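On clarity, I found the account of how folds are encoded harder to follow than it need be. What matters is that the chain and its backbone geometry are given together, residue for residue. For the editor and my fellow referees, an illustration may be useful. For illustration, here is how one protein appears when written out as sequence plus structure tokens:

___
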Amino acid sequence: MTKSSFSAHPYLLGFEQLDRLVERSARNDAYPPYNIEQSGPNAYRITLAVAGFAEENLHITVEDNQLMVRGVQPSEAEDRVFLHRGIAARQFQRSFVLADGVEVLGAVTQNGLLHIDLDRTMPETVVQTIKINKGK
């Protein structure tokens, strides 16, 4: 099976970055689990299960249309002895690629869930007429 590429298609000019975005998003780990829902015609909500993380241990950034959510667990006291340890206490980093015009409205934690609300503004349609110059 051959790998399809957006940049190899003759009608898609300047979309080389799409290949990199698809590869980058495919490398995501399964932790923590998350949902993405459409909450309105141009609104979305990403919900991550972050039980055990305090708000100050969660960091959300947006850079180059990439939403990055990081969770950092503080170091635990060494005097604790676990007879059974079934609750994951690990750090995570989850990224989401945002389309142009998608903005993060805000984030809130509730009952061990981190909700991130997004909104997409629809760009105005621009029609540009190109003047044809006579050749020499």
Q: What stands out?
A: The longest strand covers residues 102-110. The chain has one helix and seven strands.
